[in-house]
Design goal:
The protein is of the alpha/beta class. The chain is 50% helix and 12% strand. The chain contains 15 helices and 7 strands. The protein starts with a helix and ends with a helix. It binds guanosine-5'-diphosphate and magnesium ion.
């Protein structure tokens, strides 16, 4: 069956999330936790494992790319390393996209969660995943990218700059509705105190504050102009902001689901029984105050006594 016929068969809009992000950012854990959370809300869910290197999955995948191709086979037969093998697998999946579309036919009544590989080149410049998503979007799928980045990068200003650039690059490359998420927020200060209040990292509004911090750094201080220009670039695009997530927190899971549903249009769809006008309006209007986005995490996980936090707060934030 070719892709055109499948487009015709998929007359219903199918909603879901493409869960992406660097290795270890929590994608697989999120897919498991979110699938349980959604089932608890009464939704039918299918988790699709698109990472051919994923072993010991904590969830039962409805579709598993490993039944099409595995990294071990590719590495052995193609004499490739793990990274090259993974890239080959994604190119193979792109060529065999009809396999995936046919498999998805069995889950037309489900909300879909796609658990993706962690190689960042797949999101920053390699084209296979973007093309796979593009074919799916044209075939009647409405997906939002949920881009997870480990929140411990907030503790280091230099690393936070690279997270900002990675997120912006990924948004531009993937060309789809997108939300950025700082994962493992319960561990946010495990590797050191934050220099600013949490909303500095989630709202991404005044990045010039970071330039000053970077200038204090013995190595990065030499590149003040360069860092300033990079941060201006992120600010000028005005596209990057973050939501906080700890999978143990129902409030966080609910908030991330709400924004993902708003991004993929699930909340505006017409074929789900549990939708109501209040849900739709509150989601459409973004009814939560910004502070509610971080209040739960701040109370539970972040100490508020650091010098910078006080300084930042005293500037009216
Ligand atoms: N404390 C904490 N750990 C998490 C959270 N999410 C994921 N992890 C841990 O992060 C590690 C990497 O997660 P995994 O889902 O395998 O990352 P992936 O490579 O992006 O799929 C695992 O040990 C998870 O238990 C979270 O919200 N809080
Ligand atoms: Mg994984």
């Amino acid at each position: 069956m070719n892709a055109v016929l499948i487009v015709i068969e998929l007359f219903l809009m199918l909603y879901g999330q493409l869960v992406i992000g660097p290795p270890g950012s929590g994608k697989t854990t999120y897919c498991h936790a979110m699938s349980e959370f959604l089932r608890g809300l009464g939704r039918r869910v299918a988790v699709v494992n698109l990472d051919p290197a994923n072993e010991n999955l904590p969830y039962e995948p409805s579709i598993n790319v490993s039944s099409l191709i595995t990294v071990e086979d590719v590495m052995e037969k193609g004499k490739l390393g793990p990274n090259g093998g993974l890239i080959y697998c994604m190119e193979f999946l792109e060529e065999n996209i009809t396999w995936l579309l046919e498999e998805l036919q069995n889950f037309k009544d489900c909300y879909l969660l796609f658990d993706c590989p962690g190689q960042v080149e797949l999101y920053t410049h390699h084209e296979s995943l973007q093309k796979i998503v593009s074919v799916m979007m044209k075939s009647g799928f409405s997906l939002s990218a949920v881009h997870l980045v480990d929140s411990h990068y907030c503790c280091d200003p230099g690393k936070f700059v690279s997270v900002l650039l990675l997120s912006l690059n990924t948004m531009l490359q993937m060309e789809m509705p997108h939300i950025n998420v700082l994962s493992k927020a319960d561990l946010v200060e495990k590797h050191g105190k934050l220099h600013f209040n949490l909303d500095f990292y989630t709202e991404v509004l005044d990045l010039q504050e970071l330039v000053e911090l970077l200038s204090d750094d013995a190595i990065l201080g030499r590149y003040k102009k360069f860092n300033k220009a990079l941060l201006e670039l992120v600010e000028n695009y005005s596209m990057v902001s973050f939501h906080l997530l700890s999978i143990q927190s129902k409030e966080c899971m609910s908030k991330v689901l709400q924004v993902a549903d708003k991004a993929n249009g699930y909340v505006f769809g017409i074929n789900e029984e549990d939708r109501n006008i209040q849900n739709l309006l509150s989601c459409a209007m973004g009814a939560d105050f910004e502070d509610a986005k971080i209040a739960d995490i701040r109370e539970k996980y972040v100490s508020m006594d650091s010098k910078h936090v006080e300084g930042y707060a005293s500037q009216g934030r």
